[in-house]
Amino acid sequence: MDTDYNQGLKTINENKLSDQPVEEKKRRRKCHGNRKVQRFRKKCRAQGMKPQNIERKIKKRFGDSHTNQPTSIIKNNDSIDHHPKTNITLNQSIKKTSIKRKREPVRSLSQFSISQPEPKKVKKKQNIIQTLVPKPDKVYRVASYLKRPPRLLIQALGRQLDHPIKTKSEQKFIYSRLKLLDLQFCLNIHQSLWQSYFDLSYEQHQWPDHLYKITKTNEPHSCQKFIQEYLTHIQQQLEQCSTQLNLQATTCPEKLTITLLDHHLKEYVCSQQKRFTRKIHHQLKRFKDELHEKRLYRILFDNNLTSDQKEAINRLIHLRETELQIRKELLLLEQRILSKLLPSNFDQLDTLIASDFYTPVLEDQYSLNYKLKRSKILQETKRTWLDILMESYDVKMKECNRQYQEELTQLELDISKHQQHPHDARVLFRTVQVYIKHRTIQIKKDTFQQMNNFHGKLSRRRQRSKKAKQTIGVSPEVILNVNDHSLAMIGQEYLSRHGNYIRPNRTALRSYKERVKIVQEQHEIMINQMILRLSEKCHINAKSNIFKQFSERLQACLMLHYMTPLPFIEHVRAQRDLQTMKLIRRKLKKNQLLLRETDKGGNLYVAHVNEFEEKAIEYRMKTGAYEELSSSPIEEILSKVTRLINDLHAKPNQISPQQYKKIIPSRLTVELAYMYYNPKAHKVMSRLLFITRFFSNSITICFYLLLIIIQ
After folding, report:
1. What is the pLDDT of residues 657-707, one digit of tens each?
2. How many other C-beta atoms are found inside a 10 Å radius of the C-beta of residue 510?
3. Which helix (H) or strand (E) holds 689?
4. pLDDT tens column, 528-570
5. SS3 303
6. Using only C-alpha atoms, what is the Rg of the chain?
7. What distance in Å separates the CA atoms of residue 178 and residue 191, rounded to the nearest whole number?
8. Which one is predicted more confidently, 125 or 541?
9. Which residues, 6+ apart, have CB-to-CB distance to 102 below 8 Å?
10. For the chain, which residues make up each domain, given as ranges?
11. Cα–chain-centroid distance for residue 504?
12. Which residues, 6+ apart, have CB-to-CB distance to 15 below 8 Å?
């Protein structure tokens, strides 16, 4: 009874609450725009500034994006179109849904009940309408360098044109013309590719395999018709692009010459589209290889081969494919080693030697030595495992090759038995060898293409994986004997790169004047060395025309090498590497660290200056072979040597003037003997290798004096 009474009271109270009007909360007034800009504008108004000066200050401080009327280099008509459209229309189904917003009526608390079931989800009806929608163009894809920020692109174009692009009219004109020239370049390459498809296929009456998949028929006539239509479509786009270029040339600014501008822009497009041209050439070469393989197959199997011979040929092909598959697995393992992402079986070894065996509160030299020893033991163990694994791959490939040679000799004997003339047997056997060799080359090309893609996937996976960066690999790495974790994170990747990393040309980041200066310096050094050597050994006059011709050609080659712009990806990589190198130099200078190359292996070793000095003092005290001088005795030594040589030259028939010039020391190049050291990474506790370097003229003097004595 009490429970029923309480429930009744609750329902009455709920009804009263639902009948009473609910007081609406006052909404806060929303702030439209950027508050930082508004505060800055308010401060400027308080100072009594004019609105024009305020807007100019806001543009200078915050950029154009925070103003009420933004102005950009690229406007709506010239914006980057990442998905250009063609004139081809196809019937596609588009789902049409109602845009009207649907609202449910608000119910009071008394209308809700626990016993009521949840409403069922009703599928929305979709009206499917057949429409004609332009299909995205598959011929032209916007290049990555056109997707970069317009400011960076304009800077690169200014370096290419050797002309500062300051006015917005010039920037807009050059940017739009660059897009049209890029489109024209890609269309021309595509047209040449498909024209080659058509010519080769029409001559040999064989069409590419992917055309049969596109047309979904096995009829050559349909493939021929498809290529002709595709070529006409590309020709229409080229004509449209050329008309747009001609119309745009009429609006060229006065300071720019259209012929010179087009020449430089076309060179820039060619340098940026190198990857695209390589891809098209690879497609054409692949098509030619397919036609050649089909022709060889037709020649081989049109002969009167027995069933045993056909089975033997198939076994040979299978053995060769098995051997290449084993080689592919070996190449995949090598790519994993280069990408520093070993298989999971190798990473399990890191858990056997615990990294937290000795972990003090503050890292000291003992903890650093323990980490270095641990990484060295793990590296050596993983390298031995890899050696065993690679030897197993080598044994498998040798076994396949042995079986292949046995089957090949057996097939040769079988062909010689069944053929009446020995010449026919030799021709048939040579045809079999050529066909198998061609199949092998094609499989190798496909494998190397897959290796490039696999290397990119592994590098991206390693960048995302935190665990992969913490594991110890087998490739040589920099030895960081410091407690600075920031240097370890920044310099570990960059300093551990060896011969497999190709560094981009950093001179492309400099201005045009600096590059011209570098070219002139390199040209003078090369020409002077060549004139000196050739005049001494070949007795060629320095004023001959050969040197002038060589100088002009060398100047042209150096200008081409230094002035060719880098592709966008290489440019970004060069900038990133330059910033990383500057950051590492600042870290080394700030923390008083030294970077040295190890004696064995060529690895880099980073340690504090005091560590090198302490080990050098310890070595000098232990051996007693070196002495540290308080003052430089180079002046006294130089004067004694010069006086003795002059006395020798003054005596008759002792030294000729030419010999005197060669052995006399120069004050500009002479150096005192000093000791430097390299860390020995293959020794325990990273010992130092001490090397003595003598002043440069000592060996020259001794050598020429010995020659004089012998004569």
Report:
1. 877 877 788 777 777 766 555 565 545 444 555 444 444 444 455 555 555
2. 14
3. strand 687-693
4. 888 887 777 777 777 778 888 888 888 888 888 888 777 777 7
5. coil
6. 39
7. 20
8. 541
9. none
10. 36-66, 151-296, 305-475, 608-711
11. 9
12. 110
